[in-house]
Request: fold
Amino acid sequence: MINAVATVCIDNDRVRVTEWRFAPGAHTGHHRHEYPYVVVPLTSGSLAARAASGETTATLTAGAPYYRDAGVEHDVINPNPGEFVFVEIELKR
Reply:
């Protein structure tokens, strides 16, 4: 599998802001979120997530953010035929 490309834009004692770029079929690798976070999609399309409980697919819309609490564990995969991009904002405190 192809790895998604993460570019950390800001990382300080309050937040970490990362741009994620996924080529078709790219994935993050299994990980656990240690902080609550907000995702802001820059493109529209689907993202798949594999977790211990199974695989889910969500349809995301460019500019429509969503929030998740700390502790989420998954591998995120781009099933789209084109690139998918989002910004992840981790809230450290």
Summary: DSSP finds no helices and nine strands in the chain. The chain has one domain: 5-91.
